[in-house]
Each structure stands twice: as structure tokens, then as C-alpha cells.
Design a protein that fits this description.
The chain has 125 residues and is an alpha+beta fold. The protein has 4 helices and 4 strands. A 4-stranded antiparallel sheet has the order 1-4-3-2. The radius of gyration is 16 Å and the shape is globular.
């Protein structure tokens, strides 16, 4: 993963000293794990229905060094099936072979329609 210097989120975090927000590191990890599971895990590929993998929880987050924009960020990801529809994902995040973060999240698979219904029932005003 790599975030450009001119990204509006990067520019605002922090003005004059831009760093990649931790939430972007977590989201990239979830996206990479989800894509990897869909591409290479026979069990996940066998699931039927219109399913989406969603970030259910951030179980552990340790940021060791700030990540500057325009740097290549590498993820070493390990996945473990916790339940039929839940996967624990752990990652070591590195920049230039230096660990910058350790992350542990839970991904769950849910029916797209069920998620859409839950979102339409929420009032965020």
C-alpha cells in the first residue's frame, strides 16, 4: 500500500507534518486480507450467497513508528478461521523492513442485503 502526499486526509493529519493515519493502515489490512481470502482460500470461495467481508472489530493495534506518505507499506498477513463466517487476521506492517505496526482484527461475512437493511434502519442525524 502507498498513500500520496497530496491526499486530503494525509494533508490534514497533521497540518505541516503529514503522516498516514492508523485507521488507513487498518483499513488497508482488512482490504488486503479480504481480497486474499477471496482469491486463495477454498473455504471462503465455497461460501454461497451475496456475501461481504466486513471489519467487525479491531482486537489489537500497536503503532510503533509513524508512516510517512509516499512510502511503500508492506503487510505480512496471517488469517485463521474462527467460526464459519469469521476470520481473525493478524499482520505485521513494515516500511523499509522496519516494523511500524502490529494489527489484529476480526472480519465477518454477512449477506449484502442484511447489511443494507441494517444501514437503512440507522438514523445518523
Amino acid at each position: 500500500a502507498r498513500w500520496p502526499q497530496d491526499n486530503a486526509v494525509i494533508q490534514g493529519h497533521f497540518p505541516g507534518l503529514p503522516v498516514v493515519p492508523g485507521v488507513l493502515l487498518i483499513e488497508a489490512m482488512a482490504q488486503l486480507a479480504g481480497a486474499g481470502l477471496l482469491a486463495g482460500d477454498p473455504y471462503v470461495r465455497s461460501l454461497t450467497g451475496d456475501l461481504l467481508g466486513v471489519l467487525a472489530s479491531v482486537r489489537k493495534c500497536a503503532f510503533k513508528h509513524p508512516v510517512l506518505p509516499e512510502r511503500n507499506v508492506d503487510y505480512a498477513i496471517q488469517c485463521r478461521q474462527m467460526a464459519p463466517m469469521a476470520v481473525q487476521v493478524a499482520a505485521s506492517v513494515q516500511v523499509r523492513q522496519v516494523e511500524v505496526a502490529q494489527l489484529d482484527i476480526l472480519l465477518v461475512y454477512t449477506e449484502r442485503q442484511q447489511l443494507m437493511q441494517a444501514l437503512s434502519g440507522m438514523a445518523l442525524t
